[in-house]
Amino acid sequence: MSFSASLKSSPHPVLVERRSTKARRGAPSERRMRLAPAVDERLVMPGTRYEVVDGKVEHVPPSDEAHGSRHSKVSALLEVCAADGYDVASDMLTRTSWKNDMAPDASLFPRARDERTGGRRLEELAFEVVSTESLGHAAKKARALAERGVRRVFAIDVASKRALVWSKETDAWEILPRDGVIEDRALAAPLPIQALVEAMKADDAVAQALLAKKNPVLEGALHGARLEGKIEALLAVLKARGLRVSKKAEKQIRAEKSEATIDAWLERAGNAESVDRVLKP
User: Fold this and answer.
1) pLDDT value, residue 73
2) Which of 94, 100, 219, 240 is the most exposed place for a label (fewest CB within 10 A)?
3) What is the CATH number of the domain that holds 152?
4) DSSP secondary structure string for all residues of the chain
5) Does one domain contain both 201 and 224?
């Protein structure tokens, strides 16, 4: 098979597939015998604002404010919620069939390469942000992605502030409960529906996901806060018991970085006769 450029007036031509004479005559080929092309095999030039849906070249206009803002929030949430072994992409083209080459707004896909092709593996979760686009048009993409094998396809309806999931059984969108969560093997932490549809809830969801994933920066900050709180509690107990804390002793207490040591000092502070007895090795 060969490819030829169409829309020649465009500075970024779309590449469309053209079968060779031999292929048109029905001669078998490895590509024709495949059920579908590789997911990263292109019908359109990456970087252009085009998709191919049901064999039709469609221009994808730039996002309006509502779509762009929500798209950004969804991508950020997926980044922090993604499980180990998964990557997140925005507007990444996916070849769903011989006549489709489309880009979900956001997707999660396995980081490991495809053993057969050596290329990218199919995404497992895909998200479409619906603003100026209709749910009906988004359904065409959802149907194609699901038929290719994407396990779950979601739509975020900006105007109605609701999230929907594509059902292969009913061939339609189904509304998700606003107070529910999305749980999946591709997610390290549940993804709250409310955070997907409301900007104010997104930051909370990001923080919760980072805690669930034991983010080292956040864990370090929390450890420091706990340690500081225990140090202040120790000094308050010593003061309440009338024990004199010298500048040297206070400096030693505040310099201690072991939470276990501070816990031991707190235990002794209740009945020790002096600060020296509290701080004994």
Assistant:
1) 86
2) 240
3) 3.90.1570.10
4) -EEEEE-TTSSSPEEEEE--HHHHTT---HHHHSSS--TT--SS-TTSSEEEETTEEEE-PPP-HHHHHHHHHHHHHHHHHBPTTEEEEES--EEEETTEEE--SEEEEESSPPTTTSSPPPPSEEEEEESSS-HHHHHHHHHHHHHHT-SEEEEEETTTTEEEEEETTTTEEEEPPTT-EE--TTBSS-EEHHHHH-HHHHHHHHHHHHHHTT-HHHHHHHHHHHHHHHHHHHHHHHHHTT----HHHHHHHHH---HHHHHHHHHHHTT-SSHHHHT--
5) no
